[in-house]
Amino acid sequence: MVKPVDGTTEIGSIPTVPRFGVNNVKGDEMADNQRNKVFAAFLKKQLNKQPRKILDVACGDGRLTVELSKLFPFSDITGLDPKPRGNKHKIKFIRGKFPERIKQLETYDLIAAMHPDEATWPIVQKCCEYHIIFAIVPCCIMHVPPTFPGGNLSKFIQYIINYAKEHSMRIVSTTLKIRGANRAILGTPIL
What is the pTM of this model? Predict the structure, then answer.
């Protein structure tokens, strides 16, 4: 079982780039690339053992999936997205939503998601149920449980943390030095 190392601080940073960036790459795209590198580096720093099998939920074009494959070269990594965009990196993609499209969820060691939108709550819930490590950077409040009293993203994040702790997960939470939603939450089962 992979376990996090305690004592996180802010990790990484995104350089300020012009709207159209450099080398004809848009500034937003450069920021996205850096955001995924920072999140993947956070995971590499926290996990003391390479996961065997990783699922990147809401992977989009696979930028986080690619970064994870660089840092965890011996892991079997799959990207999941309702509309995966492109596959220039020969990444294994599954088209669909989490968790409906995933068979044998319990075979994964790590579920990772950068801004997973409506999959945020199902990731936390299923990882707690199956005792799987999760790492998420929530960006919005969608598909929340009926017991969530409401509120902003900060309150939703605190709700997630409390829920995971109540379900025997050790939590590491940190602020990543990235633009936009930047609170990373890593949940590891306490066995």
Answer: 0.83
